[in-house]
Amino acid sequence: MQFPACTQPRRQGFDRSRLPDPRAYYATELDALRGHGRSATARCPFHDDQHPSLSVNLDSGAFRCRVPACGSHGRDVLAFHMARYGIGFIAAAKALGAWSPTR
Ligand SMILES: [Zn+2]
User: Fold this and answer.
1) Which CATH architecture does the domain made up of 12-95 adopt?
2) How far is the CA of 79 from the centre of ligand 1 (A)?
3) How far apart are CA 8 and CA 36, in angstroms?
4) Could you tell me where the DSSP H helices lie in 1-103?
5) Which tens digits make up the pLDDT trace of 46-83?
């Protein structure tokens, strides 16, 4: 995985290092979270999930739903928060405490 700096828009005020720890974040956001090590599964909040279909990486915060009709996925808790609550990048960053108003 790579993050070419030239294609990333400048995110004024966003401080990725202040995003919550994925392990703690998902423990409060997801139902039936279980697993060990760096990966866990939980009921997917993006569709009517009867089984734990959502896989999350507790180190990176990446998530992916195994149900093809749902297919929700993202690379970190910020992407999850945006999708879960239907809000934009800045609103999600502020909600997670990762936005600094002054730079
Ligand atoms: Zn799903």
Assistant:
1) Alpha-Beta Complex (3.90)
2) 14
3) 33
4) 22-29, 77-85, 89-95
5) 999 999 999 999 999 999 999 999 999 999 999 999 99
